[in-house]
Amino acid sequence: MDHSRTIIHIDLDCFYAQVETLKNPELKTLPLGVQQQNLVVTSNYLAREFGVKKCMSVTEAKKLCPNIVLVKGEDLHDYRQVSYKVTSLLQKYSHLVERLGLDENFIDASNLVNERLKKVTPTSVPGHVFGNTTNLCDCGCGDRLKIGTQIAQEMRDEIKKGIEFNVLCGNCP
Ligand SMILES: [Mg+2]
Ligand SMILES: [Zn+2]
Q1: What is the pLDDT of residues 19-44, one digit of tens each?
Q2: Which of 59, 74, 166, 173 lies at a 20 to 30 A Cα distance from 126?
Q3: Do residues 53 and 90 make contact, with C-beta atoms less than 8 angstroms apart?
Q4: Residue 162 DSSP code
Q5: Alpha-carbon distance 31 to 69, whole Å?
Q6: If you write DSSP's letter for every residue of 105-120 in order, what string do you get?
Q7: How far apart (Å, rounded) are the C-alpha atoms in residues 66 and 75?
Q8: Which of 20, 26, 98, 104 is an active site residue?
Q9: Is there a catalytic annotation at residue 104?
Q10: pLDDT tens-digit profile of 46-65?
Q11: Which residue has the higher pLDDT, 163 or 133?
């Protein structure tokens, strides 16, 4: 099997709910659901604690979580805008970025990983690594995986920093 490439998958968490919270930070401390027609299409973790699930009917969500705050999510404009901003931040790391839906990106970070491996031998691994990175096989993929997790952490930090301020451009109609 060929282990030569390092692909990073970034999947944004409860994306629509996070965008709504960026627009209105007061929502951060409230159980929040994003409503499209009669469905709660996503919700934040406070709402999930009450058992609210993806694509649950509004009636059922309100039964489980009577204080849920529902915002309308039918207009995708702001979600698209944040989504493309995230992709453009990720394109700084590699020009090989593939989008999936509005909240997922696959980044081929192979070149960057190989460049870094010329300079450093990775030791620490941020986040969680499944399995054992030292004895995967002898092709060097364990080290590439470690560097990949470091880059993934940098990406998370970059997204957090880059999206915190100026997410929604004031110039859009
Ligand atoms: Mg997601
Ligand atoms: Zn390998």
Answers
A1: 999 999 999 999 999 999 999 999 99
A2: 166
A3: no
A4: H
A5: 6
A6: EEEE-HHHHHHHHHH-
A7: 25
A8: 104
A9: yes
A10: 999 999 999 999 999 999 99
A11: 163
Distance in Å, CA 142 to ligand 2 centroid: 7
Distance in angstroms between the alpha carbons of the first and the last residue of the chain: 50
Average pLDDT value over all residues in the chain:
91
Domains and CATH numbers, the chain: 7-11+77-164 (3.30.70.270), 15-72 (3.40.1170.60)
Residue 114 bridge partners (DSSP): none
Total Cβ atoms within 10 A of residue 35: 19
Structure token digits, residue 76: 């995708």
The two structure tokens encoding residue 88: 């453009």
Distance of alpha carbon 77 from alpha carbon 100, whole angstroms: 17
Per-residue model confidence (pLDDT) at position 168? 57
The CA 55 to ligand 1 mean position distance, Å, reads 14
